[in-house]
Amino acid sequence: MYEEQLARAIQLRTENKKQESNQLLVKMVEQYADDAVVNYQCAWSFDVLGEELKAVPYYEKAIQQGLSGTDLEGAILGLGSTYRTLGEYEKSEKVFLQGIALFPTNKALQVFYAMTLYNLQEHNKRWSSY
């Protein structure tokens, strides 16, 4: 049941049925509150709806719950870019630095980190210092 629901929610998102996907994921979080993947997918669903503020607690919870691998990589990218969108540049910088330390070859993390540095007017920082 769990796997089917999650697969359905992801399928709905890929079919551009973002609201339906989000509604299903919100219900899943109620059922599986301690599931890192469900929290991550729920955060992602709020992000694609442009509801970044609602996405933040789900990203944070997913990461705290021990998300791993490519899901962790995606959650860090999502949380850092969401903080940046919300103007929380210091939080964004911290998340991206943690992400770059964990995933040093992820170019998206590096690009979004550079954009955050620009927002902080610290774009002269050098990569070699990290």
Explain this structure.
- The protein has helices at residues 2-14, 18-31, 36-48, 52-64, 69-85, 89-102, 107-119.
- It has 130 residues and is mainly α.
Topology readout:
Elements: H1 2-14, H2 18-31, H3 36-48, H4 52-64, H5 69-85, H6 89-102, H7 107-119
- Average pLDDT across residues? 94
Residues in β-strands, percent? under 5%
Give the count of helical stretches.
7
Give the H and E element order: HHHHHHH
How would you characterize the largest beta sheet?
none
Distance between the termini: 44 Å
Helix amount: over 70%
Q: How many E-type strands?
A: 0
What sort of overall outline do the alpha carbons produce when their principal axes are compared?
elongated
Task: Report the radius of gyration as a whole number of Å.
Answer: 15 Å
SS content category: mainly alpha
Q: Would you identify the regions where 5 or more consecutive residues have pLDDT less than 50? A: none
Structure summary:
The chain is mainly α. Helices cover 75% and strands 0% of the residues.
List key phrases describing it:
single chain; 130 residues; mainly alpha
